[in-house]
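Weekly structure sync, notes
Attendees: PL (lead), two postdocs, one rotation student
Agenda item 3: pending single-chain targets
PL asked that the sequence for the first pending target be pasted directly into the notes so everyone works from the same version. It is reproduced below exactly as submitted, 176 residues in total.
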Amino acid sequence: MLQRLQTAMETMARDHTPITIAALARTARVSRTFLYQNQQARALVEQVTRTSSTHPGLSNSRSCRQPTQPAWTERALNAEEALAQAQREILSQRTRIAALLGKIRDLEHDLPEGSLQRIVTENTSLKQQARQLTQDNQRLQDRLASARQNNRFLDKRVADLEAQLALYLTAPPPPP
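Predicted structure, written out during the meeting:
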């Protein structure tokens, strides 16, 4: 990356191109973050900017005449790059959509005549059966809960009757 950066700086200096961070990153095919965070890259950039600012006839004289031109040029290049990226992304998405639509059409053509209506009818009847089974299941669960409750009540009633019967069986017989 540092070698590409060095080559890009030499090319820009030879062509008398204004050296900006964005233009340098674009030309060297590195990220701006790399230029800011890497110590060696930052030192190279500072060295070139110092050299170009002390050199007459380079970007210093241009910036005196038109101070906003590099910024506008840089923005225009960034906008063009973003536009090209967006167009590539749109083309990629359209291609993917076309492929998926083609798959759908292929699946539709594989179905015999009238099978779509049959599938929809079967789907509707299966949904009705599922609803009916869900209702039956709920009804049976309610009946099971009621039966368990009745069973508990009857078990308690039997236990009470057994307790009463045990009192009569264990009590001494009445005197004659």
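Discussion points:
- Helices lie at 2-14, 21-28, 32-37, 39-54, 59-65, 69-110, 115-170.
- The two ends are 120 Å apart (CA to CA).
Action: rotation student to compare against the earlier draft before next sync.
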